[in-house]
């Protein structure tokens, strides 16, 4: 049993103990510690506390003053706010778009896409793996949107995702793998495309 | 708490609006308030979710104050606020253990967490035992007159015994049955110690109580 599973199980057993034995009797303590020997110490400790509560049941209830109630109200409002934020994060994660998803829904892979629009696969790889820093050349963006049948917003989401989850370069024995970023122009110029295609993508024509 | 009413179905938002309008949230069982809050959700109508969360939050505070005594650090407020924070956050996490627990048995879940906090304090704090100066005794130093007063003094003494197992041994021992070997055996078995230890604990506690009560009368 992992620590987490054990803690969960312990909570379940103690919760049931609190529900079934408001004022634990001698026999109940013996029964429960025998049924759950692995939590016997916790059961005994909780039984002691519950008996203390029962003995003091009739003492006058302490009033919670306004200051403490205000602090409690503020925690309640924070809980609402935190739950909203968590919900938004979840929605955002669900609507996250990646280049891989766009490629897959267009039924293409990087090689096919590169061939279709006649751009170097190495350029697409820089873009999709988060190594190419924006801005991305308008001509390439337009060609990609056409082929991927994607909106500009989807493209921007995918670009942002790639930027925040870049692929590392290859590990070398001499150093740690690093992310080497380049601009759009650098990526085009170092590509193995023909000079004409490079000029085209750089809009030098 | 057991006189509280059944509330509307958790997803009957219009009915909950009416309850809020009638200022009747206080009459409804805690577990149903939690179920309704989880159904409405954090993005639900603020005129519904805010009053629900406030009622749940205030009710938690009262239950925690009742069960976490002033004999803890900062009169128990640190523990109360810590548990309150943990639980109020869990209300809007319907799949969390506490979120489910409060929806099932509201008071029992809060008592479980209050007891957890007290147990942590017992295990980690040297300050569990309070000095006599800080002790608040009913009736000051007057002679003991009634059974109630004597019981109150016994409780004060028990609060000052640092080992909670000794207190439990004593309470079980006081449970109406005269002390005999079977009884001691049972107490020992409940506490997971030898009969000899159980008997020593009971005797020590009795002596301590007798000394203090004797000194006061």
What does this 3D model show about the protein?
The complex is a heterodimer of chains A (205) and B (217). Chain A is built from 11 helices and no strands. With 205 residues, chain A is mainly α. In chain A, helix 1 (3-20) runs parallel beside helix 3 (40-55) and helix 2 (26-35) runs antiparallel to helix 3 (40-55). The longest helix of chain A is centred in the middle third of the chain and has 29 residues, at 66-94. The radius of gyration of chain A is 31 Å and the shape is elongated. The termini of chain A are far apart. The model of chain A has no long low-confidence stretch (mean pLDDT 89). Chain B has 2 domains: 13-126, no CATH class; 132-216, Arc Repressor Mutant, subunit A (Orthogonal Bundle). Chain B is built from 10 helices and no strands. Chain B has helices at residues 13-21, 30-40, 46-67, 77-91, 97-104, 106-124, 147-159, 164-173, 181-191, 195-216. The chains are: A mainly alpha (205), B mainly alpha (217).
């Amino acid at each position: 049993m992992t620590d987490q599973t054990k803690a969960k199980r312990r909570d379940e057993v103690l919760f049931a103990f609190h529900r079934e034995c408001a004022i634990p009797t001698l026999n109940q303590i013996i029964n429960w510690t025998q049924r759950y020997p692995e939590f016997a110490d916790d059961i005994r400790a909780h039984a002691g506390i519950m008996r203390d509560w029962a003995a003091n049941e009739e003492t006058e209830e302490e009033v919670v003053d306004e200051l403490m109630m205000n602090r409690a109200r503020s925690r309640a409002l924070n809980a609402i706010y935190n739950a909203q934020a968590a919900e938004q994060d979840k929605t955002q994660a669900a609507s996250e778009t990646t280049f891989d998803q766009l490629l897959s829904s267009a039924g293409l892979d990087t090689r096919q896409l590169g061939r279709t629009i006649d751009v170097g696969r190495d350029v697409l790889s820089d873009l999709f793996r988060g190594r190419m820093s924006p801005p991305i050349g308008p001509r390439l963006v337009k060609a990609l949107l056409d082929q991927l049948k994607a909106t500009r917003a989807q493209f921007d989401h995918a670009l942002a995702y790639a930027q925040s989850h870049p692929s590392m370069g290859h590990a070398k024995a001499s150093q740690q793998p690093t992310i080497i970023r380049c601009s759009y122009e650098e990526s085009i110029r170092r590509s193995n495309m023909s000079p004409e295609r490079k000029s085209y993508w750089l809009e030098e024509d | 708490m057991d006189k509280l009413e059944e509330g509307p179905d958790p997803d009957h938002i219009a009915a909950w609006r009416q309850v809020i309008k009638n200022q009747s949230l206080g009459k409804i069982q805690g577990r149903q308030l939690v179920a309704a809050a989880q159904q409405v959700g954090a993005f639900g109508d603020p005129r519904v979710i805010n009053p629900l969360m406030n009622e749940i939050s205030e009710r938690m505070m009262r239950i925690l104050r009742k069960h976490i005594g002033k004999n803890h650090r900062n009169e128990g407020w640190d523990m109360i606020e810590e548990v309150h924070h943990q639980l109020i956050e869990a209300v809007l996490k319907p799949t969390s253990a506490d979120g489910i627990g409060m929806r099932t048995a509201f008071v029992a879940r809060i008592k479980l967490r209050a007891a957890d906090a007290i147990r942590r304090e017992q295990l980690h704090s040297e300050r569990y035992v309070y000095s006599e100066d800080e002790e608040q005794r009913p009736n000051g130093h007057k002679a003991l007159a009634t059974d109630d007063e004597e019981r109150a003094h016994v409780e004060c003494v028990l609060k000052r015994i640092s080992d909670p197992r000794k207190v439990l041994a004593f309470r079980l021992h006081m449970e109406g049955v005269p002390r005999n070997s079977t009884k001691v055996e049972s107490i020992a078995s409940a506490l997971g110690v030898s009969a000899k230890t159980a008997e020593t604990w009971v005797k020590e506690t009795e002596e301590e109580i007798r000394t203090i009560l004797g000194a006061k009368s």
